[in-house]
Amino acid sequence: MTYHKRVSLLVFIDSIIVLSAIFFSRFLLEADIHVLTVPLVISSLTLLISHHFFSFIYKLYNKAWEYASVGELIIIFKAITFSILVTGVMQQIIEMEVHFRLLAVTWMIHMLLIGGSRFLWRMLRDTYISKPITKNRTIIIGAGSAGTMVARQLLKSADTDLCPVAFIDDNAAKHKLDILGIPVVGNVKSIEQKVRELQAENIIIAIPSLSKKGLRNIFNECLKTSAKTQIIPMLEDLISGKVSVNQIREVRVEDLLGRKPVELDLKSISDNVTGKSVLVTGAGGSIGSEICRQIIPFQPEKLILLGHGENSIYSIEMELKGDADANGIKIVTEIADLQDEKKMFEIMDFHKPNIVYHAAAHKHVPLMERNPEEAVKNNVIGTRNAASAARWANVDTFVMVSTDKAVNPTSVMGATKKLAEMLVQHFDTISKTKFVAVRFGNVLGSRGSVIPLFKKQIEKGGPVTITHPDMVRYFMTIPEASRLVLQAGALAEGGEIFVLDMGEPVKIMDLAKNLIKMSGHTLDDIDIEVTGMRPGEKLFEELLKDDEVHDKQVYPKIYVGKTATLYIEEIHDIISSFSEMQKDELRIRLLDLANHRVKTEELLSISS
Description:
Blueprint: H1 3-30, H2 38-57, H3 70-95, H4 100-129, E1 136-141, H5 145-156, E2 162-168, E3 178-179, E4 182-186, H6 191-198, E5 202-205, H7 212-222, E6 228-231, H8 235-240, E7 249-250, H9 253-256, H10 266-273, E8 277-281, H11 286-295, E9 302-307, H12 310-326, E10 330-335, H13 341-351, E11 355-358, H14 365-370, H15 372-392, E12 397-401, H16 412-429, E13 434-439, E14 442-444, H17 450-459, E15 464-466, E16 472-473, E17 475-477, H18 478-491, E18 497-500, E19 506-507, H19 508-518, E20 528-530, E21 553-555, E22 558-561, H20 568-577, H21 583-594, H22 600-607
Parallel strand pairs: 1-2, 1-5, 2-4, 5-6, 8-9, 8-11, 9-10, 11-12, 12-13, 13-18, 14-17, 15-20
Antiparallel strand pairs: 3-4, 6-7, 16-19, 18-22, 21-22
Helix pairs in contact: 1-2, 1-4, 2-3, 3-4, 10-18, 11-18, 13-15, 15-16, 16-21, 17-19
Domain Polysaccharide biosynthesis protein CapD-like: 278-561
Family: Belongs to the polysaccharide synthase family.
Protein name: Polysaccharide biosynthesis protein EpsC
């Protein structure tokens, strides 16, 4: 129906209601059907004209009554009350008398019929016209403002296949209350029982301010049911304007892992990056590419994307180009191998970056166990070349991305990253450039992360393979890891190893079970198979060794490690001779040196 047809229909209906109200009021008062008099006709016309006048003033005919609420009721009250007052004034002018009883009864009938007609349409629409034949019965967890907003959206929308049937809330004061006609039936502990009793097929978690721990507790209760569990966006996404509260999505594993995100000092990062020339090694990788994404909003003058793989560098260049061009940021790509020392010096000399974020590395533990010489080439020699070139080009700050596997390493990968940390700390002692390292745990969604592997195994019907039932790991998201790297660059004074407080570690067994259930399967559908620990793996990871720990945080949730013993001569000895060693010999040498197992006679011969 067009707007003009709709307004014409409403004006016609309201005219009948207004005239019926005043004549019926007179009939009630006089108890006589012969009520048609000149004064009554004048009052009727006055009331009719006044009603339409105030209806247009308050835009009563522009309201979408399927979404009517208290606000629309107040508008009806104002329009009718002012119409009655104008009619009373007209009666005083023409008859020199105001019929208070007639006007009072007319006001009540007028309100009842006008308001009733609007809300009757909403009831008919919601109940019979717009309601689908079948909707999935849905329980909303959280009876606060967000939960109420979600419920209202589901009730109004004809596009959704969800029908809210109950709220769950831990606030006992809300229990047994009705919100929008939906009962609050219990607390989080009763989720399993209420889903069964109400035959609910869906659960929506509608508490945007929920902590990670709180969400895990609720989700664990939801996993006891067969209902599909979804969630509204978290508070930080709502505040930033990225999403709205009615954008319901599946619960993701990153929602359940980690801890409250660290609040960053945006000003210090901006001072460190804005208007500067920034170079990122490994810019096509999962961490390097996210560092680039996080840098762009701070508007550097130039961003140099350095990587060995042309496809990945081209991909991140195309992704960033639009925002970069819009902000006047120059994007430059360099295809180069870190092992090519001459090329690294040429690149640093040509671009003269203010900041280098060194994210390039070999990170896959089992692969590096089988190819220790490649780990040395990329992680140790590559870092030395990049750091040496940065020192020669007078770079202000060099930030190396490290790993928790560098602490008491049991793998070649961890050992080479530990040696790379030593090199970076050594360069800080002989250079004006500030050299620092940033150490964190496993990154969700990165290449080599266990989660994509689990998801692929689940898609194939299983089994999901884990190496040990007691294995635990720290986890964080790629954006948070990348923001930590930027914050470390802003905090750098030189020589530090920055470490993020990563909260509680997660059992890989629990992670596998959660992923299976989140995928809509049961543990009976998908088997979990224990394959045994791979070479170089540890049951648990550490972030700082005992001799590295500083008790004081340098920033909320960020610690800095002390400088440990640096075996630079021994590292150079490995670099000069690793190509002549057998794989097993090289592996032992790397692990011994990274774990400070250096023989006294070797130290004496080196010092002499």
